[in-house]
């Protein structure tokens, strides 16, 4: 009798393997061993989760600006033109996230490219196609970037991994081909890394060695199941921004990075006079009221209630996909 993926197994695939995914020739067989099911059940289960939109892929989450260039960008668009402008922005493959948020700057998107020159060219082309100036907010300092979602009530988040910022390095040709192959996620077959190796033009062991090295170096932040938070019930997400004095921003950023409920925390430049904020963090929740309460308690816990801030809730998700570096 064929095994099927019940709700408990589905939960474990979604929750337990967002990181620490087995980097071995037969990873789905290893997952199956841990779960006590057949390998085919795991492969079919992951295919089902991808088809239903609960996961986007199984693969790497690359650290920002370690193998390419990226920036957060925003536009102030008249509400009646927002939809058409968002679609114009979406047409660029360099754009991987694009959201409407509650603010005068109401369209927020992430642009990623293989180099700084290509990034700037893409930004110029997007600005021309959209017809509105872009507010450019590149990453200056990372405090916590994870976007893993712990789905077990009461389980504590993992501590933020503190790493010094390292400038991007040029990719070798084989590495560039490997990044291109990994961007799409692992193929759901018995020997997925062997398939990637055939696409890249090298041996399976070399693919595994390079992925492991990238994980150790922090180029890959985590390797595993990449969930789509909206489809998992995290439909209320807010970007909390503060204007923190430069002398205090590192201490405040590290405190926010450790706090429960914060999935992203980083420093970006102020752009006076339109944008006075330099510290950003993201809070995801299942209801707006839950997120609002968490933000209020968070500001009190960290002692930043007196600092100017704004809360930008997401309204419409126009685009969400993995970054394209190559």
From TrEMBL:
<dbReference type="GO" id="GO:0016829">
    <property type="term" value="F:lyase activity"/>
</dbReference>
<comment type="similarity">
    <text>Belongs to the Ahb/Nir family.</text>
</comment>
<feature type="domain" description="Siroheme decarboxylase AsnC-like ligand binding">
    <location>
        <begin position="69"/>
        <end position="143"/>
    </location>
</feature>
<dbReference type="Pfam" id="PF22451">
    <property type="entry name" value="NirdL-like_HTH"/>
</dbReference>
<feature type="domain" description="Siroheme decarboxylase NirL-like HTH">
    <location>
        <begin position="12"/>
        <end position="55"/>
    </location>
</feature>
<keyword id="KW-0456">Lyase</keyword>
<protein>
    <recommendedName>
        <fullName>siroheme decarboxylase</fullName>
        <ecNumber>4.1.1.111</ecNumber>
    </recommendedName>
</protein>
<comment type="pathway">
    <text>Porphyrin-containing compound metabolism.</text>
</comment>
<dbReference type="InterPro" id="IPR050684">
    <property type="entry name" value="HTH-Siroheme_Decarb"/>
</dbReference>
<dbReference type="InterPro" id="IPR053953">
    <property type="entry name" value="NirdL-like_HTH"/>
</dbReference>
<dbReference type="InterPro" id="IPR040523">
    <property type="entry name" value="AsnC_trans_reg2"/>
</dbReference>
<feature type="domain" description="Siroheme decarboxylase NirL-like HTH">
    <location>
        <begin position="175"/>
        <end position="220"/>
    </location>
</feature>
<dbReference type="Pfam" id="PF17805">
    <property type="entry name" value="AsnC_trans_reg2"/>
</dbReference>
<feature type="domain" description="Siroheme decarboxylase AsnC-like ligand binding">
    <location>
        <begin position="232"/>
        <end position="319"/>
    </location>
</feature>
<dbReference type="InterPro" id="IPR036388">
    <property type="entry name" value="WH-like_DNA-bd_sf"/>
</dbReference>
